[in-house]
Design goal:
The protein is of the alpha+beta class. The protein has helices at about 5-35, 40-45, 65-75, 80-100, 105-115, 230-265, 280-305, 315-340, 350-355, 365-385, and strands at about 120-125, 140-145, 145-155, 165-170, 180-185, 190-195, 210-220, 225, 270, 270-275. The chain has a four-stranded mixed sheet. Strands 2-3-7-6 form a four-stranded antiparallel sheet, with helices on one face.
Amino acid sequence: MDYFLSEQQLELQKLTRKIAEEKVRPVAAQYDRSGEFPWDLVKLFAELDLFRVFIEEEYGGLGGGVLDLSIVTEELSRACGGIAICLAASALGSFPITLYGTPEQKEKYLPALADGTSLGGFCLTEAEAGSDVSAMKTRAVKDGDHYILNGTKHFITNGSIADVYTVIASTDPTKGSRGASAFIVDKTIKGLSFGKKEDKMGIRASVTSEVVFEDCIVPMANRIGSEGQGFMIAMKTLDRSRPGVAAQAVGIAQGALDLAVEYARGRTQFDQPIASFQGIQFMLADMATQVEAARSLVYATARMVDSGTKNIGKESAMCKLFASDVAMKVTTDAVQIFGGYGYMKDYPIEKFMRDAKITQIYEGTNQIQRQVIGRSLIREFAGKSK
């Protein structure tokens, strides 16, 4: 379909697709096996200005917004969802600064994030605070002109790899979620360390680890927004980042579909390609339709975000929910089309199925997305009925 992308966006899509096919795809299986962080590819992304697409122009970025980031993430994910998220997670870590940072904070941190010499990470999840963010235990206690942070964040994408972390911590536990605040924690700050590196089912090229704060001294100037705004900043950040997860899901689904079509055309049974069988054609048709529908929703939502629309929580949740469910179904069907070979690591398709699963989980499980959507619908109806 024609999504009426600008000439600049079409060039960005073309460039990223070329990188994905020529540089990412040949090494995707290698990084999946090793679980190592793809520093060589991340440096290439930086050299080609891919980290600039989601940063404001005045701070060294290209000012492209969420749609441009979604285009990049989708194209890279067609080759490897794990490698793609190394870039997308840096965007997630930068969003609290771009959305709510002071001019001084932006000037200090965004240029390095834009040129890729620094990577970002977003620290929200804890062992007892996954979907229930209000249960976080990480504390930030004011002490003169700084805060002292203590606690552990879990499942942090780019954990130990990132140079700049945006962290949500409780400054007033008596207020629950309204007592949370947001901070920028530089990797060089004393008291910051890293715990267990997770051994994951999918997106294995991406590093996921614990981020530990032990009497970590954070200057007052590194607080984002006012005290008590942390939960709001986190939710607005996720509203902005979820289309990126959805784009990752679309890319994974499209990559699996491409492989399934190629395999169906070449695999012969009963003296003819299996692509000639109606049963396979119907599967491919449904897969292609679902991928295109997901892409349409993602691009429309990304445009909505970039337009400056304030209330985007419902639509952001919808595109993440739908696209990730599509990714799981399409990759599962692709494995089915490959048959027994699809279950073997000798073929690349099983990796797409493993990578797809996480898109239904991180940045809010799909059950949480449904809750967000449902509550939003009820509020909207109540407002109209008055």
